[in-house]
């Protein structure tokens, strides 16, 4: 491959844009790419890193480039060659590329490792050692794509990740993997890891035994995220639905009662309960008015006591939540208690001592500014606080 005089001149004397164009040219020679690999402009080196004709020895040098974007681009290209980089190969070029990939998979920059994961996540013939290394990464942008999508991960691999997760979020990634077996679902459920079990329940393709669902329902009383996922889960057995009807909050009871797959008698009983709850809304509004008045009067003791009672947590956990000085955390706790967004704003100011700028205010219509998923997540986070 011979470079044109114009390309050589642009590589040596052109501006950064011209040099980048040379490095991107499909017919650029390995020699010219080697020269441009030492270019002072990162955008030029990025183009060299992306080029299929860049020699493996040069790629090895770029794996240590100071610019993370250069390394990220290189990681994506080299990882795409992973099936060809068998450690037993006799090709010196392949061995060089395999060594480069080994360096990049240990790169300190998450985006570099994530580029490798994105390239190999669905490869059926990627090196198994590489897949296992990525699956155990502590950064979820790296581990989750592989955990969820790699066909090389076995049931035993998934069970190992559940038993000894590198970080708590690892279990959540496993729980979101399509077509989980009953064995893996059982393992997740037995951990009682609140976010992981919620993710499992929200995974429509996860196979969950009826006995396991019953176990989850039994532990869902103080876990709003489990309740929310359970009432929406397809093919919910009637015993589980009946048990849920006894513990879910009012808004979830309405969701449960609206299901079309429940036995007729159970559906009718749930609708009756929904009607009864609606009938006492006036009392609830009176109670909220009392709490708003307490907030405006600065009655911390009453608010603290009522919040702990309504949210089903101890006074110590409420105090621990308040100590976080997080408007979102307090809003999540108030939401768990069934309180309104305007009351939650007052609680943040009075109990949390937050300034107006720190408070999560309601919308103009008086509803929650945070989404349901965010509020449930905030409540979940508080479960790890002192009880």
From TrEMBL:
<dbReference type="Pfam" id="PF10098">
    <property type="entry name" value="DUF2336"/>
</dbReference>
<dbReference type="InterPro" id="IPR019285">
    <property type="entry name" value="DUF2336"/>
</dbReference>
<dbReference type="InterPro" id="IPR016024">
    <property type="entry name" value="ARM-type_fold"/>
</dbReference>
<dbReference type="InterPro" id="IPR011989">
    <property type="entry name" value="ARM-like"/>
</dbReference>
<protein>
    <submittedName>
        <fullName>DUF2336 domain-containing protein</fullName>
    </submittedName>
</protein>
